Amino acid sequence: TASTVTTLNPEDHAISGSEPEKEKKLRRLSSIGKPMADVEMRIVDEAGNELPQGEVGEIVARGPRVMAGYWKDQEKTDKTIDKEGWVHTGDMGYIDEEGYFFLAGRATDMIIRAGENISPEEVEAVLRAHAKLDDVAVIGVPDEEWGEVPMCVCVVKKGETCTPEELMEFCRAHLASYKRPRAVVFCEELPRNPMGKVLKRVLREQYGKG
């Protein structure tokens, strides 16, 4: 079973104050909250170095309510818990200026472009706002210059037509340059498991050969 390690308190759900304050509080409702009193959490890079506020990295945690290891699986335990007792969750995220943690996807789905972490979920959220798209998934594909770049796999709404250039122009207005998709492909349906989760592994096998 899993223990609760973060929480949003009742006051976090009180949306009041000036308009900027209300916007900030509404945004924080999409966070996973702050660590419990007996839990330490931080955001780290691949080498285990703590990252500053706003930068995306892996969420690690330690404390008495955090897992001690895998039952009768020392090898898996050693891969998950480092020598300082930090549990590497495999979840990517970032922390804001007041200590709220936000999820940014799984480490296995994160796109790394020239050392910069790109959250597929962030790019997908932008593309879902496009009026002509019914569904979208973003994956990383190999690139000789940057190592890896975002590609979006899109399902267009019935009766609509859309071009890659149209979507790239849309992203140009809403995303930093390094986060913008470098390729757009269209399909009739995204592959999903029985729980409805998009199978990005299948998409990478189909479109991510470089």
Characterization of the model:
The protein is of the alpha+beta class. Helices cover 20% and strands 29% of the residues. The chain has 5 helices and 11 strands, in the order E-H-E-E-E-H-E-E-E-E-H-E-E-H-E-H. The strands form 4 sheets. It has a 4-stranded antiparallel beta sheet with strand order 3-4-5-6. Helix 4 links the parallel strand 10 (147-156) and strand 11 (183-186). It is globular, with a radius of gyration of 19 Å.
Oligomer: single chain
DSSP helical segment count: 5
CATH architect. name of the largest domain: Roll
Label the structural class. alpha+beta
Q: What's the order of the H and E elements?
A: EHEEEHEEEEHEEHEH
Would you identify the regions where 5 or more consecutive residues have pLDDT less than 50? none
CATH superfamily caption of the largest domain: Luciferase, Domain 3
Largest sheet data: 4 strands, antiparallel
Q: Could you tell me the strand content as a percent range?
A: 25-35%
Number-wise, the strands total 11
Task: Compute the CA-based radius of gyration.
Answer: 19 Å
In order across it, which strands form the biggest sheet? 3-4-5-6
- Whole-number total of structural domains: 2
Summarize the SSE layout with pairings.
Blueprint lengths: L5 E2 L11 H10 L5 E2 L4 E5 L12 E6 L11 H7 L6 E9 L5 E6 L4 E3 L2 E3 L1 H9 L4 E11 L3 E10 L7 H9 L10 E4 L13 H8 L3
Parallel strand pairs: 10-11
Antiparallel strand pairs: 1-2, 3-4, 4-5, 5-6, 7-8, 9-10
